[in-house]
Amino acid sequence: MDLNGFTRYRAYFYRVSANYSSAGEWQGTIDIRKQRSDGVVEALLSHKNVPGSFPSEDLARVAAGAYARVIIDEEKFSDG
User: Fold this and answer.
1) What is the mean pLDDT of residues 10-22?
2) Quick count: other Cβ atoms within 10 Å of Cβ 25?
3) Pick the CATH number of 7-74 from 1.10.3470, 3.40.50, 3.30.70, 3.30.160
4) Is a pLDDT exceeding 90 seen at residue 78?
5) Distances from the Cα of 18 to the Cα of 33, 41, 61, 68, angstroms
6) Residue 17: pLDDT band by 50, 70, 90 thresholds?
């Protein structure tokens, strides 16, 4: 698994994206990965939606980045 496009934070990597909804607002999403000592990359979260919606793509991306860092800080990687 490739980590291009991911940002390193602590011992993890995250990537943010934003999608425009039919309701006319932006929704942020995140992916979180961890690279093991043997070089294998594990997907911990994929395409997890960020709570809330935003009036611009930039705000959705900023919120997604902050949300990813909170999840990493708290180590809450379940999709639940």
Assistant:
1) 95
2) 15
3) 3.30.160
4) no
5) 18, 23, 6, 13
6) very high
Nearest by Cα to 45 from 60, 28, 57: 28
pLDDT tens digit string along 56-68?
999 999 999 999 9
**Rounded Cα distance, 21 and 17, in Å:** 13
Burial class of residue 35 (count of CB atoms within 10 Å of its CB; 0-12, 13-18, 19+): middle
- Cα 74–chain centre separation: 14
Q: Where along the chain do its domains lie?
A: 7-74
